[in-house]
Predict the structure.
Amino acid sequence: MSENRDIALSVVEAVGGKENIASFAHCATRLRIMVKDKEKIDQERIENTDKVKGAFFNSGQYQIIFGTGTVNRIFEEVEKLGIESTSKEEIKSEGKKQGNAFQRAIRTFGDVFVPIIPVLVATGLFMGLRGLLTQELVLSWFGATPDSIPPNFLLFTEVLTDTAFAFLPALVAWSAFRVFGGSPVLGIVLGLMLVNPALPNAYAVADGSAEALTMFGFIPVVGYQGSVLPAFFVGLIGAKFERVLRKRVPEALDLILTPFITLLVMITLGLFAIGPVFHSLENVVLHGTTFLLNLPFGTAGLLIGFFHQIVVVTGVHHIFNFLEIQLLEQTGSNPFNAIITCAMAAQGAACLAVGLKTKNAKLKALALPSSLSAFLGITEPAIFGVNLRYMKPFVMGLIGGAIGGFFASLFHLAGTGMAVTVIPGSLLYLNNQLPLYILCNLIGAAIAFALTWLFGYKDEQILATDHNEVAASTPSSAPASAETMSQVPASNQVAADEASTSTVLAVQAPLSGRVLPLSEVPDPAFSEGHMGRGIAIEPTEGRVIAPFDCTVAHVMDKSKHAIILEHDNGAQLLIHVGINTVSLKGQGFTTHVQSGDRVKAGQLLMEFDLAAIQSAGLSTITPVLVPDGIDVVQDVELSEMGQVTAGEQRVLSVQVSTRS
């Protein structure tokens, strides 16, 4: 307990303290924090915190990945520190300011459904266990048959598996009232009214054993067992209506009138207007989903298996919660889960291939645990930490996911629940499907692993992306790294070390401007030290000069935004002008040297247009790094901070082993 409390304290301090937290919530794997000032976040401290598997901004939220179960404990400890969670009004006012309209809508939708998912997960596991215990093969091990199962035992299992879905509208309406600022108890009552036994049961009406009531001669009224959208909108509108009432009803009458009017108005709207309209819309969505899932020749698996993890990257994947709940409620099974679990296993396998293939110690230490996390159903560390950074592993994972999903669709796999996947998800396939479930996941994972190993990753080249471009190579004389480096001081001379086994390369400032630590670079590839060690400079003029006598190892030919220099002693330096400036495709950049040129300290290497970069909405902060993987480099030390003038101050000191 004390460990989780220490982690919670560390997280709160690292995001800028209580005063910088506008609101916070959590989903199945992540702590989601809305901060007032992003600049106050200490990313490095967050990443180094125990149990943290990754952290990044997405959909207007700072998301810290802890993993299933752990995130609940950390969330509870943060609440104990006196910080209000998303059940309070603060989250909604902040949420309106973060992300675009679609992202905000999906995030709100997710905020409603995330709290009820654990109950549905438990229900799905109960279904899986019941399927296992009622199999003829399993019963035969105990000398029993399906006919020998006591009816009362079957009734008990039905209580476990049917209750959550029978009263699903109550759960949804409760959560909606909570999120939108109403009284959750009113949400529970409204949800229960929607499934009151006095109303014709929706399932009985659907199978023809009962008839809908007809109100006012034309409005059909039924119970809304298993429905989601009617309860969601009853909760949304009801919470806002209650808040309006509380502002207008006198305090002396508030306790009596507000709940009375809220329940009367909302159940009337729910049964006669909101229910019929949104239940019809819900059926359209469900029919569209089932149509897609029933496409022949495994088409659904190919499409969903390929695109699902792309949707995860956008942060709007909570919309699938609604679809899965509907599938389970209406059909009793969830084919969507079988497909997406193959997509997740494939991303884990692609990450595993990178971890096993790379010789870079940092990358290996990141990739291997991240792949394990993916196999346990949490792909964010693998995607954001490894696969997306080098892009090709991510694409190979998408291909593996598509093929695994194709077979899952072809075999008509369908889970008994939701929200658990890959290895833990096997519990949803105990009803005679487990061998095929394992086979589909292995197919997707094996293809992703093989493609990544053969074509998706090489230590010799780190691929360029919009997020972080990098090129890395480790040979002693060839260009070593492509686009990023870390903080280091410079001068224009090489001084002999006392032990005469190494020398110190002094790196002069290649630009004029303000020296910053790498942690302040607005790109995790640099700020987290994945590209190497060094500094960053926020330039005041658009000129880059040689910081020492050297050879131009590499110039980005088309984008012109980065140069790699190599000293005679084998040390290399990357100068990467701006962040994501590869997107400018060379506009605003002029290079005065070519790859292979010999240059002197102080010689002009490049000119760039500061105003053009800024007008494109890009950062001009320029990382100056010693790439990882250079064997001769023993250490890199920071020499200078604050304002520097190109060629006049040392910014990095690089200790280099003496060549024999």
About this structure: The mean pLDDT is 81. The longest strand covers residues 532-539.
